[in-house]
Write a structure and sequence with these properties.
globular; alpha/beta; five-stranded parallel sheet; 536 residues
């Protein structure tokens, strides 16, 4: 490469430590808006290249940052993190030299730009691409982003954590032992998980049968009853709940059961643990389809861990997924959206908000969203649940056991090898239930109660792993719960878009709320909404 003397920077564009120019100030000097703090720019526009005083020839545009001579900046910025991306659109509108560039952790790349802007009426010029910002890299946000990207549009995914998956989190309980992978969040794949199965096939992932059944559990710790008696009670209570008036609680409906008190106690214990709220708060309507959940049916997990779905989708998306980028506020109007993060702002034509309900409630929107929607958010129930995993020191059979008074259940299950994992898993629920298990102080009390419930198992309590979600700042809940406060029409209102703001997440999935399948379905729906708006 022929050495050239760098041009002098334009007046008014500040320099930083000698030959490094403040790129954001330079771009703004040209009259262009920049959402993120810049660390580099690819110069397809001669005016910009000359202004930034980078090495430039008219035949080959160059990265304009110090002496860099090509578009891959990874090797040329030692000690300088590449974590701020959107560079803006340069050049005269509609000019063929006007392109948009992104610098990311994996380098920089040109994109086709967004073409024509959305018209004031919300319509887009024919053939123009759309830029969609997605808040949250759980199942919902990632599938939404992936579907939008598959349609040929640009996406940016902002995730607060240092990993993808949200409330789906797979981890080896015993480091280095892949047979000890546990699910710290969402776990079971059940009949009817059609979107999950389609995504798994697309990613080349497989399901592993658990051998035990999520639906059938042995009740222990209370008065003697059987799984058959519990199922009979469940059917009767579900029938009564179907005709209960709006706002009726499970406790009110269950009190009419004339049969075995032991069966009723086991039924109520299981349902409130699953939903994460007490019977006095849980809406009777939440159990109207509960009969199907008490007959033995197969259950599965993703071979190697459910989080592989998230990592697979994120891998397909690549650099547009930005970790450690919590969303702080969302601004929206008829022209576009601006999503503010700790590192600046990301602009787009639409935003898909796929954060948990507890986080969504506290997220500032400007202008504020309608009060009716915000009231529906406040009425939405937040479940309280936790999980506990302990290594087994001797082999065990597949099993599922419910602690009736303890408000938790346990299971041992097979993995892709066909053998039972060397792990016992436990799931607890409701605020009083978790308090009784002492989860705020750690796993010891719960591990002791699990050992008392399952004397046939040989446990290693010193390596117990406890996971709580309600105290997680990026979750605030295990999932949503259908409580007596929920009003008719809330499901539709919570899921509906508001102008350029779209919503995804298990809490927007109606009958599938609280489930991994619901998260995926909501992501697909939100993507369909955005794509339909782009075609109008």
């Amino acid at each position: 490469m022929v050495e050239q003397r760098p041009a002098e920077p334009a007046a008014g564009v500040p320099e930083v430590d000698g030959d490094l120019i403040d790129l954001q100030a330079a771009v703004e000097h040209l009259g262009h808006e920049v959402g993120d703090r810049l660390i580099g720019v690819v110069g397809y526009h001669p005016q910009l290249a000359r202004l930034l005083a980078g090495r430039h020839d008219r035949q080959r545009p160059r990265v304009v940052l110090r002496d860099l001579g090509h578009a891959d900046v990874r090797e040329h910025l030692p000690g300088r993190p590449l974590d701020l991306l959107q560079a803006g659109k340069f050049g005269r509108p509609g000019h063929p030299d006007a392109h948009e560039f992104i610098i990311s952790r994996t380098g920089c790349r040109p994109s086709a730009g967004r073409g024509g802007k959305m018209t004031p009426g919300g319509r887009r010029e024919s053939g123009a691409d759309v830029r969609v910002v997605v808040a949250g890299a759980g199942f919902a946000g990632l599938l939404a982003a992936y579907r939008v990207a598959q349609a040929g549009h640009e996406v940016v995914v902002l995730e607060a954590r240092d990993r993808v998956g949200g409330r789906v989190w797979s981890q080896e309980l015993v480091p280095g032992d892949p047979r000890s992978v546990v699910e710290r969040g969402g776990e079971f794949v059940l009949d009817g998980y059609d979107v999950m199965r389609a995504v798994l096939a697309e990613l080349g992932l497989e399901l592993a049968d658990t051998t035990m059944s999520y639906d059938e559990r042995e009740p222990r710790g209370g008065a003697v009853t059987t799984a058959r008696d519990v199922a009979r009670c469940a059917a009767a209570v579900a029938g009564a709940a179907a005709s209960a008036p709006p706002g009726a609680s499970l406790a009110e409906v269950a009190a009419r059961w004339p049969g075995s008190a032991a069966a009723l106690a086991a039924f109520v214990s299981r349902v409130v643990v699953t939903h994460g709220v007490d019977a006095e708060v849980l809406a009777a309507a939440a159990v109207t389809d509960v009969t199907g959940g008490f007959a033995r049916r197969p259950s599965w997990r993703v071979a190697g861990g459910n989080q592989r779905v998230a990592t697979g989708l994120a891998g397909r998306l690549g650099s547009p997924v930005r970790l450690r980028s919590p969303v702080r506020a969302i601004e929206h109007d008829h022209e576009g959206v601006r999503v503010r993060t700790v590192g600046g702002a990301v602009t787009g034509d639409a935003v898909i908000v796929a954060v948990p309900m507890a986080v969504l409630r506290a997220l500032p929107f400007s202008p504020p969203l309608p009060e009716a929607r915000r009231e529906a958010w406040r009425r939405a129930g937040l479940a309280h649940n936790a999980k506990l995993h302990l290594p087994l020191t001797r082999p065990a059979a597949a099993s599922a056991v419910q602690s009736v008074p303890g408000r938790f259940w346990t299971w041992t299950a097979t993995d892709a090898s066909g053998q039972v994992q060397p792990v016992v898993h436990a799931f607890g629920g409701t605020e009083p239930g978790l308090a009784a298990l002492g989860v705020a102080e750690g796993p010891a009390r719960w591990a002791s109660r699990l050992a008392a419930l399952r004397p046939e198992l040989s446990l290693d309590p010193d390596r117990a792993l406890l996971t709580t979600w309600n105290d997680d700042p990026w979750a605030g809940e295990s999932y949503s719960a259908h409580t007596v406060d929920v009003a008719d029409g809330d499901d539709e209102l919570i899921a509906a878009p508001e102008g350029r703001v779209h919503f995804a997440g298990e809490h927007t999935a109606g009958a599938w709320a609280g489930l991994m399948e619901g998260a995926l379905r909501s992501g697909a729906r939100a993507a369909d909404e955005v794509l339909a708006a782009a075609r109008r």
